[in-house]
Every structure is written in structure tokens, then in C-alpha cells.
Structure prediction request, 934 residues.
Amino acid sequence: MQRLKIQYLLKEDVSALIGTTICVKGWVRTKRGNKNVAFIALNDGSIIHNIQIVADPAKFEEELKHITTGACIGVEGKLVESQGSGQAVEIQAENIVIYGEADPNTYPLQKKGHSMEFLREIGHLRPRTNTFGAVMRMRHEMAYAIHTFFHNKGFYYFHTPLITASDCEGAGEMFQVTTMDLNNIPKKEDGSVDYEQDFFGKQTALTVSGQLEGELGATALGAIYTFGPTFRAENSNTPRHLAEFWMVEPEMAFYDLDDLTALEEEFIKFLVKWALDNCKEDLEFLNNMIDKGLIERLKSVINTDFVRLPYTEGIKILEEAVAKGHKFEFPVSWGVDLASEHERFLVEEHFKKPVIMIDYPKEIKAFYMKQNDDGKTVQGTDVLFPQIGEIIGGSVREESYDKLMTRITELNIPMKDMWWYLDTRRYGSCPHAGFGLGFERLMLFVTGMANIRDVIPFPRTPKTAEF
Amino acid sequence: MQRLKIQYLLKEDVSALIGTTICVKGWVRTKRGNKNVAFIALNDGSIIHNIQIVADPAKFEEELKHITTGACIGVEGKLVESQGSGQAVEIQAENIVIYGEADPNTYPLQKKGHSMEFLREIGHLRPRTNTFGAVMRMRHEMAYAIHTFFHNKGFYYFHTPLITASDCEGAGEMFQVTTMDLNNIPKKEDGSVDYEQDFFGKQTALTVSGQLEGELGATALGAIYTFGPTFRAENSNTPRHLAEFWMVEPEMAFYDLDDLTALEEEFIKFLVKWALDNCKEDLEFLNNMIDKGLIERLKSVINTDFVRLPYTEGIKILEEAVAKGHKFEFPVSWGVDLASEHERFLVEEHFKKPVIMIDYPKEIKAFYMKQNDDGKTVQGTDVLFPQIGEIIGGSVREESYDKLMTRITELNIPMKDMWWYLDTRRYGSCPHAGFGLGFERLMLFVTGMANIRDVIPFPRTPKTAEF
Prediction:
């Protein structure tokens, strides 16, 4: 008999099925009842809600012994209107198959609530909980929304490499990739490591960004985006850092600063609206259980215009606040890299809406950002959000070969292995821009979860690579 | 003035724009003409076709000097019906901006044809060619089709980790990931590497498959898929192997062998039909320039039922062919792992259609495959295609804890770090199945390209990690 998903039974109009025999399969969340009737709450992962199975204890005496929290069962039975289970329909069991038991003495996910820390230790089972089921379904929806957004705009998904030989020298925050025997590293005559004997014949590492290769794509295909794993070997044990995370990096030929900030705003609003439109049940659960202000905050983002704030104006606002007596831990003056407290003041207290800060001092931004005529600032953009801070970082790219080389020389950036990047400016150089969105930062915002380890299935952090 | 994409001008009905002034931006493919008129073929990467710009040499004397193959320009001009350029419309230039020149003495992509080997050396520029533009746009379309297929079926995109501590011991074909100083590896007292001092506190490597973690997802969310980079440190310099490639791995609770093969067939047909429906211009180009049988072969796949062929029957067919005088290089008998020549005989000569081979001898398949009652075979499936051979490998998974453990013990598989995987069979075990599709193998099939290095932007192979 064809299995029906519980999502279908609880979300669609199934009035035509009332009175017919159907089949569901899933995992038992709870069992309760008395001598005359047993109620089984069954979940199959397709939706946060359970369907109620009503079983006659006399008929299913043997089966009910094995039906405990976590057990996997299949049920055939009559679909009926529910008498009060909170759902519109329930199933009167006619046949029950036990696929897999879950010993109540050892199964770690019993009915009682669990701490996030404990659930991280059983990361292999936590997707079976309501909270992580909701987060993982939303993670899918957000990923699909990203692909849909760019596809509909004519951007091409461009797979930049994860193993890279660029940027490896002196990059302390990169993971090295090697097939050499670490017990017996091949050495050159001078005693240094002989990378020529490694798999790729040179030193390689895991990418920290696909941007530079993304620019190769944009300057050929017009507009591309990457969406894939990215790595930082930073020894940061914080609720906001992962060693392996997913990043979205669009790159667009012929975009100027206005085009760029417009795309950034449109993109985030599209994603947040997608969550509100497509993740109703999961959002309601997270709003109730994790963060009471979640849905309201999401709605406020899509209904407000983001502020465009030149860095220089932002500094003025912060300096005025200090003059009026506002205390910041870190000093504020033109040229400083803003601290989280400064960004939060601007977003949460001054403007009370998302802020896209632009035109940063060139000294605090990357070498490839387009230089403004003032000689002091570059066309970088940070999108600053309530609670989570920077969610997007982007810039117009410097398309002038001479200006770019001057900056590279000033900053003493090793470009030996970067000839291919410079070729984009040597041959048919074009104005272009791009940005990066940390996917897990987005997930924190749309789920209300507090720790980045809880919005990715299997987090990698210092000293942790379980599962 | 708002730029219009060339794809829009050449694919949509733009009759309402005829006679108006529009703006396009892109890269010059060719310039030709005479004293009275200049024709510029402009491409912006949005479509394989160029739009023709007609310019008055007297008016644009200075600009035309800088307009050579590869230069980046913006053009404002009147859209007119074309007099014979092969396209419906062309543009009479009113204003031309040069964004970036391309010195014809050094720019490597001149009009003449280039070998695939040469284009690999300039992998940073090859997306600007017709062939690689077509392949990269199709790569996007296939990726988007994959997400669309699974989203519409209620599968959740599940991000399995790339850095893994499982399966590292003795896995010679994995890339190690480390932050240790290779010039000064920390050692334990016994002289061996002290992985406790490494970033993750243990030995880690890049994943060769997300399947095992995918099973954790499927046994919680019901149906998931992965789609991401996967790694093999195999020293294989062949047209079919990459060290870094993209893999799609769906995993489904409550699927049996029939469900699995039905999904495999539906999936591939959906993807091939998507290519035919959505990549018309690029496919026509590739059919003309790369593989004259391409479009016909794609059509044949979607219009035929795939054969389900038990391994034992396949062996009989091959043995009969041998008896009738067919020569194979490798011997055929029950129990052997079929060679490519055997698979091709079945697919291309015997059945003349795709074959899904099932029920393989357990000795030649992985430990996790569901054991049949005959005690000899397992419910593995390989989807075999004309020309490219195996495009999908999958199986029903053994859901019985006892049977799985017996097999693990027989094969002496180290399961010390795999307790979490076994928990899926310990707690609420369910029938489930899944498969893996090598994305680049699919790309070879849908593009007709011959070398796997030419269907991924930046291939990683032994001794090669450029760009």
C-alpha cells in the first residue's frame, strides 16, 4: 500500500480520503492511553506536526509493547476526522508493522526536554527532535530560495574549487590538504618540506572564499553565484564561528555600488519572505519555543527600507552619541573598524532598521575593492542586521589594472600565484561587484537559534569533528 | 541607461523595442567590416549567441581602434531588425564606451580554434569561449534541475560535512586535513604523529561520500539529498577521474528496491528532459561542434524504459554471448565485478537502452547493502548508460542491526568511530535506500564532452590545482 506523507495529510485538503484506508510510516514521538484506547503520536520528518494514531489495545496488545518513543512503525488504518487531537484528521489503526524498536532504557531522546549542549553530543540523533527538524527543514527552504532567486535573475551557479593552491603562503587560517605521510614527510635538501612530492605537486589548502575564481566566472558569463562549503582554521570557540560553513557569493559584471546594494537588499528580503511564506509551521514552533520575537522581526525586515549609510556619516552619528553621553567600550573615530557595539547602536538604537554601510576607509578593507576618487575610501558594503550584526559583506571590485596593482604593491600582497586573477583586469576588464553571505548567519537570523553550531547538521569547531 | 541582457534581446519578443535606443554591455567576439561600416559581434555570457553591433567607422574611429577580440565595451544604440546577421535584431551604435581593452598581441583567446589541452592551461579565461560558456550554463541548469526535482518531491537538502574524522584510518585515497606545521610535526613519545595537537584533536580527512551522514538525515527527516564536493586522492590521470568532484546523494526512508530504481530512472529522465527543454541553444552548439549524436542520444533516453536486470541474468547474457563467439578482454562468470566492456555490451549491443542492474553478489558490493534471502546477493543497483557507463550507484541499505554487524565483522571493517552510524539501526531502524550520482558524469552525458576536466570550471587532478 502506497505510503502517504504526514505533511500531505495535515496540510492539504484530504476530505476525499476520509473513511478510506491509508498508510503512514514514521517514528513514534509519544504513546499514551488507557485500557480501552491507545494514542500514538507519529512523525515522519515531513512536517513538525505528528499525526495521531488511535489503536485498540486488545487488538494490538503485542505491537503496543514494542511501541515506545523513537520506534519506527508503519500503520494502515482508516482516516477519520479527529475528535480533538489538535489536528483535523487522525488514523484508526487496522494494521501495525514494527520496523525498528527503540529501547526506552538506552534511547537518548525521551520525551523530556534536552539542553542544546546535550543534543550536540548526540548530533546524529538530534535531527529527530522538533527543534532540529524545524531548523533542518528551514535550512533546505533557505538553500532552495537562494538557488531560485539567482536562477530567476539569470545568474549561473558556478562551482569554484575547494582545494586551492592560491593564497596558501603564510595563510595561518587555512587548512592544509595533503596526501603526504605525516610520519615521514618528504624533505628537500635544505630540510624544508618537499611539496613537489605531494598530490598536487605544490602546497594546497581549503578555500576561504570563492570570490577570486567567482570573478573569473562573472567576467565571462555575466553574473554567477557560488554556494558551497568554505573553511577557516580559526581557533575561535564562539557561538558565531565554524571551521566549515556554507557561503553564498554572487559576482556580477557591470554592477555599480547602487546596483550592488539594491541586489543585497532584494536578496535578503526575498529569503526572509520565503521563510515566512514557506516555513509557517516550523517558524511558529521556533517562535513559541526558541525566540518569541522571531516572526515579528522577520516581518519587520521585509517591510522596511534598508538605510544606505556612508561610513563617514556613521562615524559622525556615533561621535554625536558619545558627545551626548553614550558609553562605548571601544573608541570611535574616522578610520577605526567598527566594533559590534557600534554596529548594534546604529542598527538597533539609532535607525531601528537594517543598515547597509558603504564607502569604508581603504585601510580597513581588502585590496580588491574599488577606490573612490577621494583617495581615502573604497566601495565596500556591509549589511548590518539587528541581533546578528554583519550578514553580508561585499564591494564593487577595482577594475583598473593600474590602481589594483598599486594597491597590491602598497600592501605587499604576494601575487606570484595570482597572475590569473590579474588577467581579468588585463583583458577585457569590466566594472563588476559582488558580495558574500554566510549561510549559517542567515540561518541564525531566520530560525532565532542562538548558536551557529545548531543551524548546521554536523558542526566543525576546534577539537570537534564528530559524525 | 539600464543594460539589457543579450539573451533577452535574442530569445524574447522584443518587437516593441524596435526603433528605440537600448544599452548592451559585453565582450567583443569579433570585429569585421570595411571603410563604410563596422560589425561587432558582442557576447555578454547570458547566451551563446552574439548580438551584432553596427557602427559607423567615421563616427567611432577612435573607439574602433580599441575594439579587438576580448575587449569589454558598452553600447547604446537603436535596436533594429537585422538585415542578415543570422539574428532577428541588431543594434545601430550611437554611443560606445570602452571598459577594458584586450591587447591582440598577448590575449590568448583569438578567433582561431584552440585545443582542449591549451584551454585547460588558460582555465581562467576558457569560460569566455563558446564551448565552455555553453558547458557552464548547462552545468547551472543541471544543478538547478537537481534542486528542483528533489524540492518538488519533498526531499530536504542536507549538508553533510566535508571534513570528517570517520573512515580515516588506513584510507589511502583520502586527503588529510591538518593545521599542523609540516616542518615540525608534533610527535608522541612513541614517535608517531600526535593528532591530539591538530585542529580537531584527531586525524581528519576530506569526505569521500556523504552517504552515512545522509542516512542520519533520512532516518529523521524522511527523505534528504546531498549535493556538494567530494574528494578522492586517487592517482588516476584519466578522462573520467577528478580529485575534487560534485556528487548528489539522495537517501530515502521506507524505499524498497522497486521504489529506488523507479526514483533513479525518474531522476535521470527529469534531468535529461530539463536539458532538452532549457538548454536549447547551448545543446545545438555542442551538437554541432562537439558531438553530432548528442541531442538524439538525449532524446532516446527520455523516450525509453530502462531495463531492470538482475546481475545473475546479466551474467547469463554475457556467457551466452561468449558462447556465440563474442570476445571480451576480461573473463565473465558469476561473481566477477563487471568490466566496462561487459557493461557496454549489455547497454549498447544487447538491450540498446539504459540498464539498471540489481542484486549483485555481496562480495563485490559495500557492507551496508541490504542482503537478499538467497544469502548470496545484495540489493545494490548500478544505472548503466551508453558511452559513459555507470552514472548512478545505489542500494537498499541493510536495516537489520544484527545482519549489518555480522557483515561488518566478516569484512573486518573498523567501526570504532562509527557508533553513531550503528545507532540508526539500534534506535527506530527503518527500511531505507539511496544512491549517488557523480555530477560530472552527468555533465559528460548531457554535453557530449569527452574529458571530465572540461565539465567543471577548475579541475583538480594529480599535480594540477591551478586557479
Observations:
- The longest strand of chain A covers residues 21-33.
- Chain A touches chain B through 105 residues (CB under 8 Å).
- The longest helix of chain A spans residues 130-152.
- The mean pLDDT of chain A is 96.
